[in-house]
Structure prediction request, 1004 residues.
Amino acid sequence: MIWLSQHPLSVLTFLPLAGAAVIAFLRRESADRIRGVALAFSLATFALALKLFLAFSPNQPGMQFVEYRPWISSPPIGYHLGIDGLSVLLILLSAFLTPLAILASWASITSHVKEFFLFLLALETGMIGVFVSLDLFLFFIFWEAMLIPMYFLIGVWGHERRVYAAVKFILYTMAGSALMLVGIIYLYTVTGTFDLEVIEGLVAGGFAGLSGSAQTWLFLAFFLAFAIKVPMFPFHTWLPDAHVEAPTAGSVILAGVLLKMGTYGMLRFCLPLFPQASREFAPLIVVLAIVGILYGALVAMVQPDMKKLVAYSSVAHLGFVVLGIFTFTMAGIQGAIYQMCNHGVSTGALFILVGMLYDRRHTRQIKEFGGLATTLPIYSAFFMIVALSSLGLPMLNGFVGEFLIILGAFHVRVIYAVLAAVGVVLAAVYLLWMYQRVFFGEVTNEKNRKLPDLTDREKVILVSVVFVILWMGVYPQPFLRRLDLSTAHVIHRVKHGPASYALQRTPPPAEPAR
Amino acid sequence: MITVQASDFIRILPQEILSAFAILVMVFEPFLPSSRKVVLGWFSLLGVVAAGAAAVRTSYSLGPAFNASIAADPFSIYFIALFLLVAALCLLGSFNYLQRDNINHGEFYALILMGTVGMCFMAASTELIMIFLGLEISSLSTYVLAGFKRHDGLSNEASLKYFLLGSFATAFFLYGIAFVYGLTGTTNLMTLSERLSRTGTGGTPLLWVAIVLMFIGLGFKVSTAPFHVWTPDVYQGAPAPVTAFLSVGPKAAAFAVILRIFLGAFHAVGSVSFQMLWLSAILTMVVGNLAALWQSNVKRLLAYSAIAHAGYVLVGIAAGSAEGVSAVLFYLTVYALMNVGAFILIAPIAGTGERALRVEDYTGLGYTRPGVAACLTVFMLSLGGIPTTAGFLGKFYLFRAAIHAHLIGLVIVAVLTSVVSVYYYLRLVVVMYMREGQPQATSEPLPLALRVALATSVIGIFVLGLFPLLLKKKGEAEASPRHTKLAQVR
Prediction:
């Protein structure tokens, strides 16, 4: 027990996997017990994540709850875990969304229940693992291994074109990460280590082993992997397919957490490790991000399918996040991280809501609906709140993030801020227009007249989501406070690395032997 | 003059034991009724285990044997252990198969053992003529094994093709040896290495011809492009357990020879070997992976995948460093586990006469036979190089060695083609789990022997995928690019 309390990150990471192992031993027929075990383990993980979040000290710089064990001695790969303000938020988000995803698929997943929850819990381990790893190799293992459960979730329990979507998802992501692997190994050959903190220290100290062009190539190798995952504008084509075809739980996790891994990677690796290349590429990336914001919004506007609409809205929202990151300002990056969490909660909730409607009517076409506000009053109210949060209404969570990002963009160039603001307006257009068509007016389709309103289980999901939405909108301080030091650290690294940083120190730090 | 000592015989103890068991199998064969032939299989397995024990004994008295034509060094012990593992897995996978397909003859086991003897000699020889003899012993056994289903047209075709092209290729190898002898006056690798380094680097055009000729002969055995054309046909036609044996055993043996010759003896003329290896690696990875995309027959699909994997191994060899050799050794073991596992698992799925071999025949297998499908999924994911499986770490070590040797372009081709490969490996997973329908595949329960073999492979894949050093330490000890020198010192 002492060991367990001393290694909170390991426990947190592998607790869901332990749940998956328990499920593996349950009888296939007892579906309810399987669901119960899955929920129990995911809730326990959430409780642990919450405890970690509260225990996380906002005033302490650097990584906290660090665990280190040598794992493979040749090449030196360490089992190195640790969290800072950025990862603690994303871990909380992952742990929050997983029980919701389990609850959301409680009734809708009826075939191969055992495998479904097994994969879902295995996926959670992968997600948390990505956020706690401080060793590039370990990070890559989690990053890639996580694809497999997601691939099965989409491919087995998805909708009509699920196989196409699943294969496209995995191939796109792997193509990106294959080059990242080359980058990781190259980085190892010049620095002699996979340890993120050591490499970061070397880079910050003006490490000579990494020439300008090598830094550019490495930046591109890492950035491509993350840009595909986010996905940024020209690499986004896998996302609508995967989101639309995935089962509700898959979409929730995909939008809520997996996309954030891309932006997390940019913050954790691209900016601190390749500051010079980050600065060089920032203008181009910002332009792509803004294109993504506008393009995503415009395409979302014309979607006839609600789920596809939400999927394209993710392209726009993640465009905001990338924009915020590459402003290299305190407001921009904090807003970006906050927006990552917002988008996870709001878009996750939107997918859950669309899924609930799909469970009732087996369609997601907007034109099939109309006047639902009269037949499903409670559902409509929840939908309204979530939609408003997604479009960034003040007092709800989305506003805080978008405001900060636009503020950051404004400091860099006014036009960036203006264009991003246009994106906010467009978001209001597509979401409200969809809401109007689906919920207002007369009931146009007879099939919609007798729909049952929310069940208790569904209410629990939505109440908890709305609670978080309101809290994050009204009182963001507990979250933002924990981000201050991490953000300042990243900005310091990217703005002052490597040349100017080395000048501050005399004499320059000793170079490693290589 | 050749003097023979007692220690010489201890240094080839595993080969002797295997040969003795092979001969005994042949002797007992006529006296056993057809229903009890499987006894010979277990007897052969005992032989393999005994040879394993002998290998341990040999590892305590390392050194050159028979006038330095054979070396018992860590390198050869490692390979002998690998061949014994392959032979054991293939034997376990074949018992039921032979009974079911009505080819239950004891010669099968004898031939597997003889083939293994040949492979062991290939890995242990430091004398070109000895290598050639080992190559011939293993080839002749595998020619017969490929055609073991006498009444099956495809099997006959496989055997004939393998035999004709194979003898052609060994002729190239022999021709290369002749050139080398003509140029240097020796066929002993150690003497050769000395003489070549004394005459300086670069070598003469005639020597390059010799190198290329020898590489063609060995390239055929490891099925590198463009010498891979026989592979799909032979792998498809041969009985599945034989394919398992073919796709790993002779290949690994030929890689051992390539390491000894090109990184050891011809080290002095490295640039020619390097360019050849580099080109061959790229061609092999591209051809193997792209061709596999279009296959609808599982055996052919895995055949092209086996070609592609030879390409990855060549990446490690092209690195030309101790790190590269160590990575190659590790990778070959990993490859043996996953590839043998996949091929011996195909046999029971395909049913009598190996009828259900199309990819579509696997439809819904994930639900009708969850255990079988799960094993196959593990093999596929490992072949595709997904982390936590040994396939990933194997590739990781190979690529690391290559990047260290500044072969970044080669590694980029390798990682991109291995992403392509994920597509076709996942095709099997897709049909097993994501397509509705009843599988054509048969549903006979797996026999115990096969289960043991599969469990060994699957557990091995995960253990090596998480704790590679259990094996890698051994690999590193054997990894000296001039291991021929190593033997010479002793």
